[in-house]
């Protein structure tokens, strides 16, 4: 019999009746499982002790406070106002990536609403980056196909696996040597559906009435396949990475993009400054939002060949990466390099179809 | 009470308030902040039509998310209550109190760095919700609750060990 997983051992501690008899018998007679159970039990006890915080509450007094709050014209935070506590930025950015560019939509059951034609950085303060509910907390994200990124033997195998041209770099930056390894990833397909109850749960408050049809609209995002050549560095991080991926495309089978976008942007907690930025870039359509961490990364725009490009670098310039979109591909060159070095590599790449 | 507020609010409030405060307190390590979070959560709940039978799970999940959002935002109040937030039974020695308080907040900081679903499942389970209640509240299968909680405990222990080794 297979050894039960850690999850079942954990449940045995709390709800032994929820564990099947044959599993319990196995654990009782299996020294390996008993040893694991002991470890699971020790961790559970330690964490219980660490998290314990006994609180005595005065429910009558608390009810009076709630009554006073509900009697006001608008709900007020009980002790002090904390504005912008919840910022569903990632969710909104994620959904906008699905929705963006609907003005160019064509009719059809699944009409394409998003084609990436340029990359636009959005600067978001670090504080907003770390308090973001995740997209799945605003609805259902069903991943129909995963990238399954894996190594292949060489450039030819990468081309055959993806149908894409592979990069050739003849003028490697100083300190980058040897042959690259090649990685490939399959096409990704995800389907997002907004769920009001989940959004309210994530935000901890009611949300405005969604536009008719939002709940039944499916937004489908596809991206990939992609490939990358990676030269290893001394630190374990790549010294140089050169890759491309078929640009994301978004489809909707329901309500217009503008309607959904305006609703999502109006969800409580979204900073006004960010809201304005998002509106500005999505009105043009066809841009891929790249979130830049304001505290530790810098960005500027330039060109690679004839394509507009966005360059990001960490504070101090230890790691740099350039993105550009051309002919339906998002291309990237990055590594433990300066911005000048990644731009020089990007400008010298030849894409070999065979 | 305004007509827009659900009529069964008081009944649900009195039954669930201590539990909801307990959920938030495990995340925040502060009674006052936990009560603020609970009040906000009930205010929001009062304007929903969540079925009464699902209220406890909804309230606990909403309180956990709201508390984690507070925690992650770093917008926490340094109140006199934090000085008193050391669990009962800790020696009154000042140095020990400081160490215990530091440890207390270190645990909460590590908790807030866990993946959100793991953190919420962990807090709900340690607040006394059953596997079935956690599963229903988080849209998990009951069988996967143990796995999620175990991963969260393991990850939290690693976070704490990593944190301790870097100090």
Spans of chain B of at least 5 consecutive residues whose pLDDT stays below 50 are 75-98
Can you tell me the number of structural domains of chain B?
A: 1
Shape of chain B: globular
Q: Please name the two chains that share the biggest interface, counting residues whose Cβ lies under 8 Å from a Cβ on the partner chain.
A: A-B, 53 and 69 residues
Provide the gyration radius of chain A in Å.
25 Å
Compute the number of helices of chain B. 8
Count the E strands of chain A.
17
Q: Give the oligomer, counting copies of the same chain as homo and different chains as hetero.
A: heterodimer
In short:
Chain B: Residues 13-77 form the RNA polymerase sigma-70 region domain. In chain A, 32% of the residues lie in helices and 29% in strands. Chain A is an alpha+beta fold.
Question: What does this molecule look like?
Answer:
The complex is a heterodimer of chains A (354) and B (167). Chain A folds into 2 domains: 72 residues; 264 residues, no CATH class. Chain A is built from 11 helices and 17 strands. Chain A is extended, with a radius of gyration of 25 Å. Chain B has a single domain, classed as Butyryl-CoA Dehydrogenase, subunit A, domain 3. Chain B is globular, with a radius of gyration of 17 Å. Chain B starts with 8 loop residues before the first helix and ends with a helix. Chains A and B meet through helix 1, helix 3, helix 4 and helix 8 of A and helix 1, helix 2, helix 3, helix 6 and helix 8 of B.
Layout of secondary structure:
The complex is a heterodimer of chains A (354) and B (167).
Chain A (H helix, E strand, L loop, with lengths): L5 H9 L6 H9 L1 H21 L7 H13 L17 H11 L11 E5 L2 E7 L1 H4 L9 E7 L4 E3 L2 H8 L3 E3 L12 E5 L2 E7 L1 H8 L15 E5 L2 E7 L5 E9 L2 E4 L4 H9 L6 H13 L2 E7 L3 E8 L2 E8 L5 E7 L2 E7 L3 H10 L1 E3 L2
Parallel strand pairs in A: 2-12
Antiparallel strand pairs in A: 1-11, 3-7, 4-6, 5-17, 6-9, 7-8, 8-11, 9-10, 10-16, 13-14, 14-15, 15-16
Chain B lengths: L8 H20 L2 H16 L8 H19 L6 H4 L10 H20 L2 H11 L4 H8 L3 H24 L2
């Amino acid at each position: 019999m297979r050894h039960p997983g850690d999850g079942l051992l954990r449940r045995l501690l709390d709800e032994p009746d929820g564990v099947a008899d044959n599993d319990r018998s196995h654990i009782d007679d299996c020294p390996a499982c008993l040893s694991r159970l002991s470890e699971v039990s020790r961790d559970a006890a330690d964490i219980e002790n660490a998290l314990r915080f006994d609180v005595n509450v005065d429910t009558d007094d608390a009810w009076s406070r709630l009554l006073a709050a509900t009697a006001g014209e608008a709900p007020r935070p009980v002790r002090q106002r904390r504005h912008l506590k919840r910022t569903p930025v990632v969710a909104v950015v994620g959904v906008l990536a699905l929705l963006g560019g609907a003005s160019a939509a064509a009719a059809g059951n699944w009409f394409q609403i998003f084609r990436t034609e340029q990359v636009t950085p959005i600067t978001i303060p670090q504080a907003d980056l770390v308090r973001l509910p995740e997209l799945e907390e605003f609805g259902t994200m069903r991943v129909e196909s995963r990238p399954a990124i894996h190594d292949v033997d060489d450039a030819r195998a990468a081309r055959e696996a993806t149908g894409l041209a592979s990069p050739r770099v003849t003028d490697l930056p100083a300190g980058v040597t040897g042959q690259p390894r090649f990685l490939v990833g399959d096409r990704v397909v995800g389907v997002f559906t907004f769920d009001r109850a989940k959004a309210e749960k994530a935000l901890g408050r009611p949300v405005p009435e969604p536009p008719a049809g939002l709940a039944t609209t499916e937004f489908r995002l596809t991206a990939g396949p992609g490939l990358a050549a990676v030269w290893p560095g001394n630190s374990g991080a790549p010294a140089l990475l050169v890759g491309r991926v078929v640009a994301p495309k978004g489809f909707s089978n329901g309500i217009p993009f503008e309607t959904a976008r305006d609703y999502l942007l109006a969800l409580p907690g979204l900073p006004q400054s960010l809201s304005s930025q998002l509106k500005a870039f999505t009105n043009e359509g066809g841009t891929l939002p790249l979130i830049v961490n304001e505290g530790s990364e810098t960005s500027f725009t330039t060109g690679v060949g004839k394509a507009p490009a966005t360059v990001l670098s960490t504070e101090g310039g230890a790691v740099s990466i350039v993105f550009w979109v051309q002919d339906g591909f998002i291309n990237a060159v990055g590594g433990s390099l300066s911005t000048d070095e990644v731009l020089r590599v990007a400008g010298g790449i030849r894409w070999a179809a065979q | 009470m305004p007509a827009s507020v659900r009529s069964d609010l008081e009944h649900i409030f009195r039954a669930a308030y201590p539990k909801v405060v307990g959920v938030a307190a495990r995340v925040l390590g502060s009674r006052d902040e936990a009560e603020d979070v609970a009040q906000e959560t009930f205010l929001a709940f009062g304007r929903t039509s969540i079925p009464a039978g699902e209220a406890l799970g909804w309230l606990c999940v909403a309180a956990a998310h709201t508390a984690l959002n507070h925690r992650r935002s770093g917008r926490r109040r340094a109140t006199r209550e934090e000085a008193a937030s050391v669990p009962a039974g800790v020696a009154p020695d000042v140095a020990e109190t400081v160490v215990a308080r530091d440890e207390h907040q270190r645990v909460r900081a590590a908790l807030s760095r866990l993946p959100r679903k793991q953190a919420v499942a962990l807090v709900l389970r340690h607040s006394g919700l059953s596997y079935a209640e956690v599963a229903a509240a988080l849209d998990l299968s009951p069988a996967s609750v143990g796995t999620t909680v175990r991963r969260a405990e393991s990850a939290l222990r690693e976070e704490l060990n990593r944190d301790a080794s870097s100090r």
